[in-house]
Amino acid sequence: MGFTDIRKLFPILDQKVNGHPLVYLDSAASAQKPIQVIKTLKHYYERDNANVHRGVHTLSSRATDAYEAARIKVSNFIHAKSEQEIIFTRGTTSSINLVASSYARKVCQEGDEIVISAMEHHSNLLPWQQVAKTTGAVLKYIPLQADGTFSIKDFEQKVTNRTKIVSVSHISNVLGIANPVKQMAAIAHKHGAAIMVDGAQSVPHIKVDVQELDCDFYAFSGHKMCGPTGIGVLYGKKELLEQMEPIEFGGEMIDHVDLHEASWKELPWKFEGGTPIIAGAIGLGVAIDFLEQIGLDVIEEHDKQLTRYVVERMKQIEHLTMYGPEKDRFGLVTFNLDKIHPHDLATVLDTLGVAIRAGHHCCQLLMKHFGASATARASFYLYNTEEDVNQFISALQKTKEYFKE
Ligand code: PMP
């Protein structure tokens, strides 16, 4: 199937916005859903909806089987050792908070270190600030270079035998580039530290093999990879997850309850207190089938190639600043045009049917590093085509003219 045919599987893209064909360039914030995922959700609520795990009736068995089958799909998709290492959460934010609250608060003592970078999304920054505040651990930042990236050497210098956890994004949601997480994992482990990887922007675009990376925890969100909103994943190595305490207590996660004590179910259910996000998980499983049918290597190449094309076209626009290094970007480019405020730019582009994002992208530290209060970001996914890029470039040029006048 070619990418033009793939696009046709996304009903939402077949519409006009403000009188123009929609050009959706905001997939880094949330991706669109193919018809298979939409139909799966509809079918689930029309035919199979019931609570999981505790019921013996047919609908409950169907819902349970589909929910647990989705877990196996996720496990295979990221090459985990077992589905016991896959915890369903609300998204990347919840997954990172789970590790921060359960693992990091337990292992960090006063004077221990947590190493992150100023490139991180707030979801991979604020949870560590909180751990540092409550435990007395020191939050250390890998210094950034002028282009917003960091070097592995600088990282290596930050990690010491007091480092308990390193947390870093696999692909930055502002720069679009990949960090060397495999090398970072090896360095962290040499010092006895664990490494958590924020995979919100990587899992949709590249093949991820958590065993090959040898990361201890890996987090991602379903909604950025053609799945429903409200579902996400925390992968964790079994031996670490087993040592961790749940952070939510209630139904579904218990084994036995007494007046003053209770014991937990085995992995992964001890971390899934309450009724889980059943339809979301099942929808995510179908999104994974869809991405795998196309092939992650094919998707990666498409997204990189399209981003190379847009970068080349943007270079020809005067007074346009792009942020980040001249390196392969995995499906997004962040920029500012002349002295136009990015919110104004995004508003005018919207009148031309082009949806981009403007703001700090939940990365205020990186914005500060660039001396920008805000930037614009165009992001691309498997349903975008060169025609989208052409319309985007033409809309940028029109906007520039508009502000000149
Ligand atoms: N990390 C990165 C790099 C992201 O791009 C995002 C989403 N913008 C998140 C974390 C948070 O994801 P979610 O809002 O789905 O929890």
TrEMBL record:
InterPro entries: Aminotrans_V_dom, Aminotrans_V_PyrdxlP_BS, Cys_dSase_SufS, Cysteine_dSase, PyrdxlP-dep_Trfase, PyrdxlP-dep_Trfase_major, PyrdxlP-dep_Trfase_small
EC number: 2.8.1.7
Named cofactor requirement(s): pyridoxal 5'-phosphate
Enzyme class: transferase
Catalytic activity: (sulfur carrier)-H + L-cysteine = (sulfur carrier)-SH + L-alanine
Keyword tags: Pyridoxal phosphate, Transferase
Protein origin, superkingdom: Bacteria
CDD domains: SufS_like (cd06453)
DNA repair keyword on record: no
Aminotransferase class V domain sequence ranges: 23-392
GO molecular function per UniProt: cysteine desulfurase activity
Pfam families linked to this entry: Aminotran_5
NCBIfam families membership: sufS (TIGR01979)
Free-text function comment from the UniProt entry: Catalyzes the removal of elemental sulfur and selenium atoms from L-cysteine, L-cystine, L-selenocysteine, and L-selenocystine to produce L-alanine.
Family (UniProt): Belongs to the class-V pyridoxal-phosphate-dependent aminotransferase family. Csd subfamily.
Name of the molecule in the record: Cysteine desulfurase
Species this protein is from: Sporosarcina soli
